[in-house]
Specification:
Layout (H helix, E strand, L loop, with lengths): L12 H8 L7 H12 L6 E2 L10 E3 L4 E6 L17 H24 L3 E6 L5 H20 L6 E4 L4 H14 L1
Parallel strand pairs: 3-4, 4-5
Antiparallel strand pairs: 1-2, 2-3
């Protein structure tokens, strides 16, 4: 195993291969959302468009809508109870950098007058997919009807009561 500067060595060869297999583009949640957008009749989007700040996963340039599909693990979403136990300091810094980059991208898009939609991986699971996609489709269509003030939409945000219940369950399992 060869470690890069600042990156601790993987705990095993299998772990190394699993981490290398993670993709940053065309992930399953991204493909799921794009299929749902096409099914709703929303085409004409750009993927990872370089001209938009932060290179959103899905971008509607004419409507000025940027959609980010975040993986719950990589962007340290509150629904993810499991955190890596080995190299905890490295992972804490990594997650902090990812969150800071996400916030910077959103600020730049808002300053440029874009509507930013954040979709979390957990919200595209079967049980919540329809509601999440409906909210995304509604935002994209609203933006197409006329100029909206720049704003952020957290599609499918988990209510606080549900988060408390999940945390209590994960504590009981530990």
């Amino acid at each position: 195993m060869v470690a890069r500067a600042g990156v601790p060595p993987a705990s095993s060869e299998a772990t190394r291969h699993v981490m290398q297999a993670n993709r940053s583009k065309n992930t399953t949640p991204e493909l799921t959302l794009r299929a749902e957008l096409r099914a709703a009749g929303l085409t004409g989007y750009r993927l990872h468009w370089k001209k938009a700040p932060g290179r959103p996963d899905v971008c509607f340039p004419g409507r000025r809508v940027a959609i980010f599909v975040h993986g719950c693990f990589w962007h340290a979403h509150s629904c993810t109870a499991a955190r890596p136990r080995t190299h905890a300091d490295f992972w804490a810094e990594k997650f902090a950098r990812n969150r800071a980059r996400d916030e910077r991208n959103v600020r730049e898009l808002l300053a440029a007058g874009w509507t930013v939609v954040v979709v979390w991986e957990c919200e595209l699971k079967r049980a919540r997919r329809a509601a999440t996609v409906a909210r995304v489709v509604a935002e994209v269509r609203r933006a197409g009807e006329g100029r909206l003030p720049a704003h952020v939409v957290d599609a499918g945000a988990v209510p606080a009561w549900r988060l408390r219940r999940r945390r209590a369950r994960s504590r009981r399992r530990s």
